[in-house]
Design a protein that fits this description.
The chain is mostly helical and 195 residues long. The chain is 80% helix and 2% strand. It has a two-stranded parallel sheet with strand order 1-2. The radius of gyration is 52 Å and the shape is rod-shaped.
């Protein structure tokens, strides 16, 4: 299967080969002197010919015919005699109308599909924006949780310090009471012994 670039190059080469042997006629004199049917008039020259042929709408029919015959003889216009009948024309017209209708229906279907795709892309864009906002919020929540964790650690340390102070004070008081009781007991024992 060919990619687009290869197809374009192939089309250009066919176009080049098709017009390689043709010459573009650029002046009316070249058209008058033309004898080769393969030569073609330039677009500017065709515009000039069109201007001369149809510049006056009130031109006499005979003058128009004379000009058409002049351009036919010079090879600018081709009339090979293969005319189509009215019936063939109407059949062709009906086929073209049907084809145009089919193409119009196809365009409408594709336009609806494009509209649906645009809506979906818009929804995806809004979802992406929401996800981005959510990610930013989650990141700020993470930072806040880290700050709260640090605060809790500090508060825990302070609480342990406070609790240890009370415990330490209680131990000191208990130690003093115990020492006093032991001192009294020892003193009583010494007194009883006589010392």
């Amino acid at each position: 299967m060919k990619n687009i670039a290869e197809q374009i190059l192939e089309g250009l080469s066919k176009f080049y080969v098709g017009f390689q042997n043709r010459r573009v006629l650029k002046t009316m004199e070249e058209i008058e002197a033309n004898t080769d049917e393969q030569n073609i008039p330039s677009a500017l020259l065709l515009g000039e010919i069109n201007y001369y042929l149809f510049r006056e709408s009130y031109m006499e029919p005979l003058t128009r015919v004379k000009r058409l015959l002049f351009f036919y003889k010079k090879g600018v216009m081709k009339m090979d005699g293969d005319y189509i009948s009215r019936k063939e024309h109407e059949e062709f017209s009906a086929r073209m109308s049907a084809e145009n209708k089919r193409l119009e229906d196809e365009n409408n279907r594709q336009n609806h599909r494009i509209d649906d795709l645009e809506d979906k892309v818009s929804e995806i864009h809004s979802i992406a924006a929401s996800v981005e906002k959510l990610a930013v919020n989650m990141q700020s929540m993470l930072k806040e949780q880290e700050k709260q964790g640090d605060r809790l650690e500090k508060q825990g340390e302070r609480l342990e310090t406070l609790e240890s102070r009370d415990g330490e004070t209680w131990r000191k008081v208990t130690g003093h009471i115990l020492t006093t009781v032991i001192g009294i007991a020892v003193g009583y024992v010494f007194k009883m012994i006589g010392m």
